[in-house]
Amino acid sequence: MTERVLLLRFHSLGDVILATALIPPLALHADRAVHVLTEAKFAAVFAGNPAIERIWIREDIVSEAAVADLGRFHRVIDLQGTASARAIARRLGPRRGIRTRSLARRWVVLTGGRWLQPDIPHAVERYAEAAELADVVKEGQSAPEVFVTPEEQVEYTREFPDLSGSRSHRRVALLTGASRRSKEYPRTSFLAVGRQLEAAGHEVLWVEGPDQEHGESVGRVVRTSLGTLKAVLSEIDLAITSDSGPMHLVTALGRPTLALFGSSVRALGFWPLGKHSEVLEVDGLGCRPCGVHGRNRCRRGDWACLLGLTPEQVVMTASRMLGVGT
Fold it and tell me: How far apart are CA 105 and CA 127, in angstroms?
């Protein structure tokens, strides 16, 4: 009999993307069918994944009849861990939940990692614990991965015909925006980075979220759906990004990624995974991290964690990653 497994993660974008690392090992057995339950706006993360039997939408689960349509599962892996997620999971089958390490992460914020720093595994490893796959993930046999569907490729060609053809320059995407200001590389600094890259002969994409405040930009502005964005980012040579959901998207597409960490620190367990990923950050600031999820104000008032990452430093690192001058 086929074992039905449900992977449940509603939001947010980065967490949903990281959850894709569990799909290949979960689907390893031929007699196991992997289903996913997520929010509609994140369904594109799982679209095109050949190991997924079916994608279910959270917004459709609004009644007992809708829950019954999903049927019973042999295992429900609840990576959301909220009260509403637990309630849904328990109605669908035996539930396995995630350990958030919330107290340990708060300790890192309180001490700045200066003493008795707890060992907080990466989020993917914590997800693997819930799925009883910790050994597989620790051995590096699984990593987040997303796929571009044929339909998304067609939409990309239709929406951005100037990008989807042949090109002679290296393409660098600046993934602007983040959930909190202390995680968001400043627009003025990104502008300086983009101009320097253009002056060096690179093609620059300025990527903005649909709800992001618009302003001055450089290069080709990309503002599109999640599915089409996958296709756009799958063809870049390098992404330069704040600590954000799109950071995890571009690494899951296997593209080289330079992550600019302001208040974020790797000790909290959300650094970008990927063979070609690097993190650039200001060391020696006792105020880092100022919060588990970042903040919209700077207690010091000088935003040293972000402004200390100069455009010149960013461009120098990016040029090395692009292989310029080597």
Answer: 16
- 57: phi then psi, degrees, rounded to nearest 5: -110, 125
As a whole number of angstroms, the distance between CA 111 and CA 270 comes to 18
Domains of the chain plus CATH, in order, are 3-138 (3.40.50.2000), 150-322 (3.40.50.2000)
Express each pLDDT in 230-272 by its tens digit.
999 999 999 999 999 999 999 999 999 999 999 999 989 899 9
* Closest of 99, 94, 152, 88 to residue 121, by C-alpha: 99
Q: What b/e readout covers 92-123, taking b as 16+ CB neighbours within 10 angstroms?
A: bbebebbeebeebbeebbeebbeeeeeebbbb
Residue 48 near residue 148 (C-beta atoms within 8 A): yes
Is 78's pLDDT higher than 70?
A: yes
Task: Taking residues 150-161, report their average pLDDT.
Answer: 97
Rg from Cα positions in the chain: 20
Strand partners, 206: 174, 221
**What secondary structure letter does DSSP report for 204?**
E
Q: Is 13 in contact with 42 (CB distance < 8 Å)?
A: yes
Instruction: Report the predicted TM-score, pTM, of the whole model to 2 decimal places.
Output: 0.94
Q: How is residue 211 written in tokens? A: 């709800």
What are the DSSP calls for 274-312, one per residue? STTEEEEE-TT-TT--SSSS--SS-SSSS-HHHHTS-HH
pLDDT tens per residue, range 167-180: 879 999 999 999 99
SS3 133: coil
